[in-house]
Design brief:
34% helix; single chain; alpha/beta; 7 helices; elongated; 244 residues; five-stranded antiparallel beta sheet
Length: 244
């Protein structure tokens, strides 16, 4: 069963599409519907359906702007529109298909097959990812695995200078002048970094202890090899000194 979410600014359009989807196919279960795109974004960034049916023409933001605001895109996207002029643009925005309103039953069956193929590839990709992560954790203790932008990065811990928090995101700053932004809170990043090498020196920073150049005691900050100045939280100072 394909678990689907519908986003359309018009409640009547949602009702009509829901009726068409459930009557044309026994393979689709509609688990949520939204007429407010902001509410839909919050839901989709924390939940992963099998498929999203997304209307393109919405007054507060169009469907393409909507897709750009999603941090979680691990599901099939089907654009629904009354105008075929959006077809090419829809497919360029990683949609697997588009449906013209009113929906034709044959077109819907073709779309369902595409959704099934997409989800099958996603499952296989997840299995490969699990194998790679497991292999890295078992045999290479000097690397951590970062999942970002649809790819796995195997990052040498010696290349990490520090990690900085930005709300629900974290930025990994490396010795190679490369900043890697990931959708993980600092607490989550801290859990995957080896304690022997890293220390959360501040609510907003984790540092690589091997990359400290100076500790300015009177002013309460450390200078990293890159010359970045990182503050030392007062309540963490004694733990930090023990680490050193």
């Amino acid at each position: 069963m394909i678990k689907a979410v519908i986003v359309d600014d018009e409640p009547k359009a949602i009702q009509g599409l829901s009726w068409e989807l459930t009557n044309f196919s026994d393979d689709i279960e509609i688990i949520e519907t939204f007429s407010n795109p902001d509410e839909a974004i919050r839901y989709l960034n924390n939940n992963t359906p099998d498929c999203l049916f997304l209307d393109i023409q919405m007054p507060t933001m169009d469907g393409f702007q909507f897709l750009e605001k999603l941090s979680n895109k691990d599901f099939a996207v089907v654009i629904t529109t009354a105008y075929d002029e959006y077809a090419i643009k829809a497919l360029k925005h990683e949609a697997i298909d588009y449906l013209l309103k009113p929906i034709d039953s044959d077109d819907l069956q073709d779309t369902i097959q595409k959704i099934k193929k997409f989800n099958s590839r996603l499952v296989n990709s997840s299995k490969i990812e699990e194998v790679l992560v497991s292999f890295n954790e078992r045999f290479d203790k000097k690397k951590i695995t970062i999942n970002t932008d649809g790819k796995l990065i195997f990052l040498d811990i010696d290349d990490i200078l520090f990690v900085e928090s930005d709300g629900n995101y974290s930025t990994i700053v490396t010795t190679k002048q490369q900043n890697i932004v990931i959708t993980k809170k600092l607490k989550e990043v801290n859990a995957i970094l080896p304690e022997h090498y890293f220390f959360r020196i501040h609510n907003s920073f984790i540092i690589n202890l091997n990359k400290i150049k100076e500790f300015i005691k009177n002013e309460g900050y450390v200078v990293m090899e890159s010359n970045h100045k990182i503050p030392v939280a007062r309540q963490r100072k004694s733990d930090f000194l023990e680490k050193l």
